[in-house]
């Protein structure tokens, strides 16, 4: 009997992360998913068969502890979803050093740290790393969409991922930068046209198709290639 595909989802306490965990589990994947604190575990615990781990993504000690608990477990996919919207004013003139530091640490630097540290837990011959990006991180397409600080943090993520891919010596490594669409979440707001289930079903379809496909791609939840 063939073992189910396995996935580690970083940041799954609510919204898209929780939706992804539920959709992957419903499609028969073996799902391990992280939350920032024990108080956030209940929604994931309600999903049959989902293993819940704890990770504060911006804390190197928390990342080391997770790596120790995972030990040598191998995943077909590592999906790094965690992120923040940044300051509500979206203004470079008003932005403080603390606000910008937290935004870029959470949305750009920490996801790469997670990928680098957990790379030994990715299946060598067909593994796929997925980063939750956004069309707002596209220099060509995202500049006029009105959320410049958040978009800049996602553009930084896209750049760091490209640099990361170029440093890897595994020609079989697959990497996706994924735009989920404009979704009705706490971050996306009530006016967004897309519901969580539709976005997650699309992303799961794209991820499932990309396993075993080497190289770097920047896609939306429907599989459309996005401009850098």
From TrEMBL:
Matches recorded under NCBIfam families: PRK08177.1
PANTHER family: SHORT CHAIN DEHYDROGENASE, SHORT-CHAIN DEHYDROGENASE/REDUCTASE SDR
Protein name from the UniProt record: SDR family oxidoreductase
Organism: Ectopseudomonas oleovorans (Pseudomonas oleovorans)
A molecular function GO annotation: oxidoreductase activity, acting on the CH-OH group of donors, NAD or NADP as acceptor
One Pfam family named in its UniProt record: adh_short
